[in-house]
Records
---
Amino acid sequence: ALKERGLKVTVVEMLPQILPAMLDLDMANIVKEILEQKGLSILTEKRVEEILGEDKATGVIAGEEQLNADILLSAFGVRANTKLASEANIELGETRAIKTNARMETNIKDIFAAGDCAEVPNLITHKPSCSQLGTIAVRQGKVAGTNAGGGYSLFQGVLGSAVTKLFDTEVGSTGLTVNAAKKARIETVTGTINSKTRADYYPGAKPIKIKLVVEKESHHLIGAQIIGGEEVTQRINAISFAIQKHMTISELAKADTAYAPPLSETWEPIILAAEIVLRKLQ
Amino acid sequence: ALKERGLKVTVVEMLPQILPAMLDLDMANIVKEILEQKGLSILTEKRVEEILGEDKATGVIAGEEQLNADILLSAFGVRANTKLASEANIELGETRAIKTNARMETNIKDIFAAGDCAEVPNLITHKPSCSQLGTIAVRQGKVAGTNAGGGYSLFQGVLGSAVTKLFDTEVGSTGLTVNAAKKARIETVTGTINSKTRADYYPGAKPIKIKLVVEKESHHLIGAQIIGGEEVTQRINAISFAIQKHMTISELAKADTAYAPPLSETWEPIILAAEIVLRKLQ
C-alpha cells in the first residue's frame, strides 16, 4: 500500500524468507521476486539492530548497513496477550496462549477463550497451535458462544488456511508447509506445477503456481501453497476440504473438476500437481 | 455470443426451465432473468413444432406462435453415437451409451471406451450415467489409455462438475440437483444463501448465490449450484472434493477457509449455506 502511494519501501526480515508461516522458501522467493519487480527492496536474514534518531526515527541499522527513512513501521510478529487470563489463574498452554478444550473452555468453569489469545490443536499434527487468523477467531467465537449459552459445539481444529493479495498477485496457503511438517517430524513428498487460470488460448489467462505437500507414508494431502493472478482463495478452500477429509493424492489426481475455457483449464492445475506427486511416489 | 454480436435472440426450450442438467428450477429462473435483462427472449415449455421456409429456414412455429428469424440454430441435446460399437457387437448400457467397467473396458477383450459415448457410474447414486463433459472424457481417456497400455487404473465415477459463463455471470454445478436426487429417490434438504465474492465494503465485490443439496438421512453433501459474478469454478471444485470424500453438512459448516477482504468474505458463503441446511435439520 505504501509503495502504491509512491513511497520507496524497504522491508527488513530477520528470517531467511518472507511469509514463513504460509510458504516454504522456494515459493517465498517467487513472491519476493514479484515484490522486487514492483520496486520494493527486501532484505532477508537481516536484523534491525538499532533505530536511529532522537525525537523522531530517522532510520535503522540492519546488518551492517544504515537505512535512512522518513517513516518506520515495526511488525515484529504477534503474541497472545494473556495478562488478564494469567491474573485470573487461567492456565496457559505450550504456545503461551490460553489452553482450551474442544468446547473452547478454559480450566476455570464457565470461562471460555476464543480468538488470537486461544490455543487450539492443529488438524494434522494434533499439537497445540495459536493460529491468530480472523477466520479461526470467528469460528472459535461461535463454538465458545454456543457452549457458553448452554448449547453443545466442538471446535475441530485448525488448518490455518490463509490468503493475501500483494499488488496483483494472490498468495494462499493451507495445512502444513514442508518446513512445518519437518518440525513436526512428518516426512513429505511435494509436487509443484506452473499453469494458467483459464484455457491457455483464452484472453486474460493468468499464471498460477501450485505446490502440494503430501505425507509420504499415508499419501494423504497435508498442505498447499498457491501463487497466482486470480482464483487462489477458492483453490485453497478446495484443498482445505480435501485435507480435512483425509483425501489421498491418488484420489485428488482423479477428482471431478469443472471446466469452461473462460474460467479454467481442462486439467485443473491442482490435479496436475497431484499427478506430479503421484509420479514421485511410484 | 450472438447477442453480443448485436443479433436479436430468442431461445425456445421444451422443458419448464433452462440448464436442466445443472440447475433446479429456482436457480434456473435466476439465470433466465439475468439473460432476459441482457435482452434475450427465452420461451420455456414451448416445443419447436415446425421449421418454416423452403430453400432456407425463415422461422419456426413454437407453441402457437410464429417466430421469424434469419438464422436458426438447433440444439436438441446430445446422444452417444454408438453405431460403430453396435456393429462390433459391443454391449450398450441402459443410457444407450457403451457399457464399461471401472477400467473402461467394454465387454469385448482389449476394446476400451472413453468419452461422450461411454457410460460410467454416478459417484452418488452408483447408477450408470453418460455425463458427456470434456473433463470426464479426458479422465476416462487417461484410465482407458493406462489400462490399454498394460497399466492398471480405475475410473472412480462421475459427479458431473460443470461451469459456464453467460455474459458476466458464472453458473456452476456439481453432484445432484434436488430434481436429480428425487429421480434417484433420494430425500434432500437444501440451503441457499445470497452473499458477496469479497468483503462487502471492498470495491468490486460481486453477488454470489449458493444452493447446497444434502442427503437428509446421512447429512452428506450431495450437490451444489452456484450463480455468481466471479470465483464460481473453484467453489464447485471445493464442493466436488467434499462430496467425493463424504463430507457431512456439519463438517462443512466448521471447515477451515481462507479470508482476505479483497478476495473473500470472513464467512465464506459455502459455510453460510451449510449453516442454513444445519438449522433445517435440527
Note: The first strand of chain A starts at residue 10 and ends at 12.
---
Amino acid sequence: MKLEQIETPAALIDIARMQKNIARMQGHMNTLNVTFRPHVKTTKCIDVVRAQIAAGARGITVSTLKEAEAFFAAGIGDILYAVSMAPSKLPRALALRRQGCDLKLVVDNPTAASAIAAFGDQHGETFEVWIEVDTDGHRSGITPEQDTLLEVGRILHENGVKVGGVMTHAGSSYELDTPEALAALAEQERAGCVRAAQRLREAGIACPAVSVGSTPTALAATQLEGVTEVRAGVYVLFDLVMHNVGVCTLDDIALSVLTTVIGHQADKGWAILDAGWMAMSRDRGTSRQSHDFGYGQPCLLNGTLLPGYVVSGANQEHGILSPTQAQAQAQADDITQRFPVGMKLRILPNHACATGAQFPEYHAVAPDGDSVEWRRFQGW
Amino acid sequence: MKLEQIETPAALIDIARMQKNIARMQGHMNTLNVTFRPHVKTTKCIDVVRAQIAAGARGITVSTLKEAEAFFAAGIGDILYAVSMAPSKLPRALALRRQGCDLKLVVDNPTAASAIAAFGDQHGETFEVWIEVDTDGHRSGITPEQDTLLEVGRILHENGVKVGGVMTHAGSSYELDTPEALAALAEQERAGCVRAAQRLREAGIACPAVSVGSTPTALAATQLEGVTEVRAGVYVLFDLVMHNVGVCTLDDIALSVLTTVIGHQADKGWAILDAGWMAMSRDRGTSRQSHDFGYGQPCLLNGTLLPGYVVSGANQEHGILSPTQAQAQAQADDITQRFPVGMKLRILPNHACATGAQFPEYHAVAPDGDSVEWRRFQGW
C-alpha cells in the first residue's frame, strides 16, 4: 500500500531511519566490544526485532511475560525478563523454560529470591536469575554496597538457582540533556554494576553477565570495562524526548502518526486533526524538558518538518494543531488555507514506546513510499 | 476465575458499581424525558454496551469507524459517528450503510459537507449527517449564530444528504468542579444546541435530532427542553477526574487496575508495583485539578481505600506507591511491612477511557469475587 492510501490515524515507521538507528547503536556496541540485547518493549513487533538481530543483537530484553511468550514463539530463545519477579508469575516462567526458552528472571529482594528458589526446588527446575542493581536511585534495584546484594545472591546460589549476572538501568538519563552529564551517568552506571558483580564474585558467587543500559547512557558510553552486554529500547525509533535529551536529531525519529485535517476553529488559529491522545498517547514527556513539543511536532506527509506549529491540545480522537506562539497572528489567520480539510500530516511523538502502544500495527514505509503492515501486540 | 487468581496487571470492572452507574444515568435521562445514546469509546466492549442497552439506551455513539463496524457486527444498528468526517473515510461509511447500518455522520465545515454530498451522489447513497455545534469553545463545531451553520445545512440539504440533527459536546465541563458551574454549562450546552436547530428549521431544513452531552453536564442538567437525546461515556465506569469534577464518589469508580507489589526502596518509603504507565496510562488528568492523585489511588484487593498513599511515579512496567506526604516518615518506614512483596492491590485510575485502552480485556468481577473476561479492542 502506498503511503497516501493508509487510513488515518496510523503509526508509521520510516524503515530507512529505523535501519540507520539500529546500525548506529550496534556499531557503537561493536566498538565498545560488548554484546547488545535490545529491549523489545518499545515496539513489541517481531519485524522490528528481526532487523535488530540481523544487525548483530544477541538475545532480547522484555518487560512482560507476554513479550517473552510471543518472541519465543517467533524463534527467539535468549530472553531477559527485566522486571523484578512477582512470585505469582512463576508458573508462566516455568512453562517457558520447559518449552526450551532460555528465560532469565530478575530480582532485587530476598522475598522474591526465596520464592524462586522454593518454586524451582518444588518443580525440579534450575532457574537463572540476574540481580537488579540500583545505580542512579530512580526506580528498583539494590545499590552495589548494600548487604542485601550478597543476601539475595546467597539465597539464590545456596538454593539451587543459577545467578546468571547483574543488571542495571540508569533511567534517570532521560532527565539529562548535556553530553557531559550523560557520559558521567554512563560511567556511574558501568562502575556501579561492575562493582556489584565484583562483590558477588568475592563472595564466591559466579556472576558471568554484567548488563547495563538505557538509550542515552548506551550512546554516551565511551568505555565499558567489565560490562558484558548493553540493553536499550527506544533508540530503534527515537522520539522528541530523546531529541531533547540530545541523543538524536528530529530527522532520526522513525516513528510518526499519520493524521488528516478534519476541521478548523479559524478564529483561534486551530486546525483539528483526527489524531487525538488515543493516537498520540497521553505521554507529554517533553513538558518537563527544555523544548515542550505539546502532543507532537507536525510534519508534511513527506516528512518535512513544520517549524512554528505544534499539536497543542488533544481530546480522545481530536488533536489541535496551532502556531507555537499566541502572537503568531499571521500563521493563525492562514490556518484554513495552509491546512485544508483532508490534508494529511505526520506527527512526531513525545515517546515512541507510549505512542506505539496505542496501535495494533505499524505501517512500515520504504523510501519509495510503499508500505507494509507490521503487527504489534498489547497486554500482559 | 476468582479475583485472587487473576494475573497482574489487569483491568477490573466492578460489575455492581457499573450497573449502579448505568441505572443512575438512565434514570436521570428518563426523568428528563430524553433518550440516551451512550458513548462507547470509554470501554469499546460489547458486554458493557449490552448492559447499557438493557437499561434503556437507544443507539450508541462511537469515536471511530472501527467501533461502528465492531458494534454493528454485534447487532447494534443505530450508530452516531461523532467525529467530523474525513472525506477519505467515506468508503468505509458507505460499506456500513450498504450492510444496513443506520450510521449517522457528523460535519462542522463546508468542505466535508460538500465531499459527503458528492460522494453520496456518485454512489447513489443518501447519507444522514448531523451538524456539530460548538457550545463551549473547547474543540470542534460551529457556534449557533455563525453563518457557516446555515451554509453547511444548505450544502447538505440541497445536495441529497439528510440533515438528521445537530449535536454538541460541552467537554469543558471536565474543567469545572462545582454543581452551580456544571448546571450553568449544562444549560449553555442545551440552549446553544436548541438554538442551532431552531436556525436550521427556520431556514427550511428539518432537524429532528438535538443531541447534547458529556458526563458532567448530563448529570447536572435539570431540564432539557428542546433536546431529544443525551450522550455520555465515562459515567459507566467513572474515574478520579470525575470524582474531582464532583459527579461521583470514589466508591462509584468501577474500574481499577489489579497489581502486585514486586519490590521496595525502603529508604525512600517506596513500594514498587507491577503496574506502571503501560497499565495505568500516561493520563494524569487530576494533576490539573484540586486533588492530584498521581498515577492513581491505591486500594486493598477488596476495594477498601488506602488514604495517605498514592501511585506517585511510573515507568513503563513499574509503579511507585508512596505516602502522599514526604513528612509521613512513619508510613514510609512501614512500607515493607504494610505492602510486602506479593501483595495484591487495586489502583483507581485518573481516566477510565485512557486506562481501559491499555488492556485487551477487562476482568468483570461480581460481588462474590467471581470474574469473567470481557474483550475490548483498540485501533481505528
Note: Chain A touches chain B through 58 residues (CB under 8 Å).
